[in-house]
Hints:
Elements: E1 2-6, E2 18-22, H1 27-41, E3 45-51, H2 64-68, E4 71-72, E5 75-79, E6 82-87, E7 90-95, E8 101-106, E9 115-121, E10 125-130, E11 137-141, H3 165-172, H4 179-183, H5 194-203, H6 217-237, E12 277-281, E13 284-288
Antiparallel strand pairs: 1-2, 3-4, 3-9, 5-6, 6-7, 7-11, 8-10, 9-10, 12-13
Helix pairs in contact: 1-6, 3-6, 5-6
Amino acid sequence: MLVILENKPLSRYTKHAIIEVIPMPELPEVETTLRGLKPHVEGQTVTNLLIRNHHLRWPVPTQLPKLLGNQAIRQLSRRAKYLLWRFNHGTLITHLGMSGYFRVLHCDVKAEKHDHIDLILNSNTCIRYCDPRRFGAFVWTTADPATHTLLQKLGVEPLSPDFNADYLFTYAKRRQCSIKQFIMNHHIVVGVGNIYAAESLFAAKINPKRAANQVGKSRLASLVTEIKRILRKAIKAGGTTLKNFHHADGKPGFFKFHLQVYGQANAPCPHCATPIKQITQAQRSTYYCPKCQR
C-alpha cells in the first residue's frame, strides 16, 4: 500500500500537487486523495474527457465524454473507497482498484504508458488517472449513488456516529468468524483494511483470532474507539506508505512510522518486548502480540 502526495516540479508545465495512490489503497489513502483533489475539481467544468483505454475492471462507458463534456463538477465526496464525482445530471463513481492513482497536471504534460483517462477542466488542469493493473473503475449513474449495486450493501462509515459499540455488538454477537475478519467485512464497516485492523486490535488488546461473538461489549467499545483514533491518525499522516512520501508542502507524511505491530514479525512488542507474531488469516498476514493480546 503506497500513497504519494507531493509537490513535485514538472518542468515548465505546472506546480500543481501530485496525488498518487498505489496498491492497495484503503480508506485513509482514498480520503487523502479526496482531500488533495477537491480544491482542483469542485466548481470546475469538464471541457473534455479523454479515454485511452476502456478496459478497466469494467469497460469505461463509451458515452462518458459526451455525458461529462461542458458539465460542472458540483461536489467530490467519498463513500467507503469510492470517489463520487457529482454533476447536475448524474454521478461518476470511481475506484482506484489495486494500483490506480490520480495526478493533477497541466494539460500539456505528455501521457505515459498506464495513463488511461484524462479529465480536462476549464482551469487548464488535467486530472489524469493511471492504473498499471487496470482494476480500477469509472462507472456512471443517473440514480442516487447510494442505491447503486456497488454501494447499496456497504456498511457504516467508521468515522461516523453510527459506528459505535451498540452497532458493533449487535452484529458481532451473531458472528463466529474471527474478530479481525469481522471488522474487515465491508458489509459491517467500510475501510478497515488489513493494516488498520491489526493496529486497532493491538491498541484495544484483543487477540485477532478470537471469535467476534466472544468479544464483550466493553471491549468492542474500546475497539471502536481505537479504529476511529487510528484511522484519523492515518488520514492526518496521509495514509500508509512503504516508500518516500511527502505532502504538498514538502513535509514527510508516513503513517508507517506509527505502526506498532503490522509488518513487525519477531520484533519486540513496544509495550512488553514479547516478539510480535505473524500468522495467516483468510489469506492475509496478521500481526499481534501474544502477551498483550491474549
